[in-house]
UniProtKB/TrEMBL annotation:
Gene3D superfamilies: 3.30.70.100. This is ABM domain-containing protein. The lineage of its organism: Bacteria, Pseudomonadati, Nitrospinota/Tectimicrobiota group, Candidatus Tectimicrobiota, Candidatus Entotheonellia. Residues 3-97 form the ABM domain. Coiled coil: none annotated. It comes from the Bacteria. It holds the Pfam family ABM.
Amino acid sequence: MPYIAMNNFQVSADQAEQFEERWRKRRSFLQDVPEFEHFQLLRGDEQEGIVHYVSHSTWASKDAFIDWTHSDSFVQAHRGDPIPKGMLQGHPQLECFDVVHIAD
């Protein structure tokens, strides 16, 4: 069964557009990673000047995700321009899940 890794970001609403643009322009280096399935950046509603975003990646297995976190591809994907001060409200929060059921 697949494995899901999600990073939760709390972004200042006045910088939400810039946050999304950073993701659009970012090289993820995921396309050639073994057992990577797909990626989505999700935007939630704005509440009290904060927009909740989730980076959602699907992997063939937990081991595939862990292997990626120890790879050169991971290092390259996370290298680059630092996030501008004030864009994020707190640190990203990682949540990971084993898929236990997929509906038809």
